[in-house]
Write a structure and sequence with these properties.
The protein is an alpha+beta fold. It is built from 5 helices and 5 strands, in the order E-H-H-E-E-H-H-H-E-E. Strand 4 and strand 5 form a beta hairpin.
Length: about 170
Amino acid sequence: MNVSYEHRTLFRYEGPLDMQLLPQIVKSVEQLLIGEKVRTPLRRKIIGALIELAQNIIHYSVPHHPHSNPSISLVREGDSIVLSASNAIHSSQELFLRTYIENLLSMNKEDLSTLYQNVLTKSDYTDTGGAGLGILQVMAKADGFSYTIEALGEDHAQFTVRASFAILANA
């Protein structure tokens, strides 16, 4: 069996996630990216996306779901680093998420940037500290973005985001 250096897991965390644990995860991932010789601008993009996705998990995940722990992973896939985040959500959130993300996916990078600036300058921030910018920021930073929502019974679903970052394009 051949194991490729270019396709391997760099980091994986599965379990409860909170704002006290997040800085430790960020520090670990940053050290791994430095070890991978990922240049600073790309490293900042990946870390920024990691923070946004982790905060989404902390704020919107169904706590202690019996069939789904939140997870975050970073995988080297050829000339890209893929950041994945997954968590259980209430089924009632599914339609909003699908509509919101599909709308964002229909936009080009310039439109995403314009929307981001408009939300920053014209929206009210919520009590949780944001203006609904998390996924928008990840999409704007990433070279590729995909998501899935899969049923976890009648009341919950598994929400997974994959954001890829091209290493060579940012070298």
